[in-house]
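Readers of this paper often ask what the protein records in our data store actually look like. An entry from our holdings is shown next, in its original layout:
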Amino acid sequence: MKAMTYRGPYKIRVENKPDPRIEHPHDAIVRVTLAAICGSDLHLYHGMMPDTRIGHTFGHEFVGVVERLGGAVTNLKVGDRVMVPFNIFCGRCFFCARGLFSNCHNVNANATAVGGIYGYSHTAGGYDGGQAELVRVPFADVGPTVIPDWMSDEDALLLTDAYSTGYFGAQLGEIAEGETVVVLGAGPVGLAAAQSAWLMGAGRVISIDHLDYRLAKAREFAHAETVNISEHRDVVVQMKRMTDHLGADVVIDAVGAEADGNVTQHVTSAKLKLQGGSPVALNWAIDGARKGGRVSVIGAYGPLFSAVKFGDALNKGLTLRMNQAPVKRQWPRLFEHIRAGYISPRDLITHRVPLDHIAEGYHMFSSKLDDCIKTVVVPSEG
């Protein structure tokens, strides 16, 4: 099969790899019909995540058609059109029983924190991802869901991570009716979080980014007020000015490890790899939230130390909530919202590229070219 493979920072190519095989009775083999490049894939592409090995196939957002099944899978059949959450989980452990699918205890021997994630380095289990023609799906009896007949493949694709993660970020904020919500980052996850905040009763939503085209999308897609970081000497001061000098009720960090804004933090994290990610956005969230407010973190960070203003969070009495999104837990409500016409996740998509041209897709997304917000990858016909 054809698959994207990692060759080192900023170096990927499409190669022929052996077709995945059934390794366990609960496995499925899915022929990918659509995949996507996620903002967190860029952390891998840039060499930010530890133990990203040569030859690894990225891609934790994908939908496809079931091609083969292990003997123990009873809830799917060959030919089913399925959406696969980015979390790999067993459905039976202590954490899965509590809906913490992203923290499954049985799928990642390499960490005590995160569970398994498709295509996200050996730190997240070493599973090959879906930027390929075929992908092995472990625990197929609990992870994948048959896509409803009324749902488009592109809506389903956005629910495998980006939109579900944004929705989860708004959930973590425990937004009360009429509250002010600030979302740091206007990429796909931040845009989904901003739109979701309205669904949860926000009275005001402010989107902050440094790219005009993404802020324009925030106004169109999420009906948010917008702030361009580059137009203000101190974005935290601007956040305070916009909130009666108190700060926001809820701040959502949808940026993560590669935030700009502080040269020292960016160099020590992105360049020298001395931190698990630049904490600039997270520190802005801590500084920009009101006393007694909430900070929701859904941007991806690595496992290393980060210079976070934890003392300020303590002294302000903030509630900090964070996790990798337990995607499947969000689906029932999101299905309802799509069917009712309240949301249209596929409207985030701006570009579609063939799998053979995925290197160009990564370059375009990484370099913020052609007003790129969300890129879908279309595998070649196998």
Notes: The two ends are 8 Å apart (CA to CA).
